[in-house]
């Protein structure tokens, strides 16, 4: 019982100590569970040894008890046959076996009590391991959600940082500049087109005057 309590206390102490230093909670939780599973394996080995001792003492007690009962029956048989000396020796051996049986019984009862306590503590450790596994799954989900939230927050924070805002402002100015250049180009193109039209019109008017002048010259000649 003291062994299991110490194992449990050490495991919990390690968990509480390392949680503060853990960089990756998910990996650390898995490591804690592996550590506790190893502790349980050690505990199972101790329980198995105690159960083996319990069974051995139980067998020794049962054999001594049965032999004492056998010697008593043999003593009675010897008396019936008229052999008092044989009966006396059987009773002497019966007394020795009864004392052994009583001693084995005390040891067996103690070993059984210890084994029962160890079984109970081992069961508690396994129950605790099951609870920790369930809690591990919940903590894993919470850790993943927290990581996702942190990443989203960092992304949003980056969008609002000075560098990003400054960059967007420069690009906005550049777009405005391009739009202004395009508009100026359109106006210049329209102005040139208008000048060409007036030039053609003037050219046409000049041609008409020249034609009319030639006609007058021809009239004078006539």
TrEMBL record:
It comes from the Bacteria. Transmembrane segments: none annotated. Residues 26-77, 115-188 form a coiled coil. InterPro entries: PspA_VIPP1. Keywords: Coiled coil. Signal peptide: none annotated. Belongs to the PspA/Vipp/IM30 family. PANTHER family: MEMBRANE-ASSOCIATED PROTEIN VIPP1, CHLOROPLASTIC, PHAGE SHOCK PROTEIN A. This is Phage shock protein A. It comes from Tumebacillus algifaecis. The lineage of its organism: Bacteria, Bacillati, Bacillota, Bacilli, Bacillales.
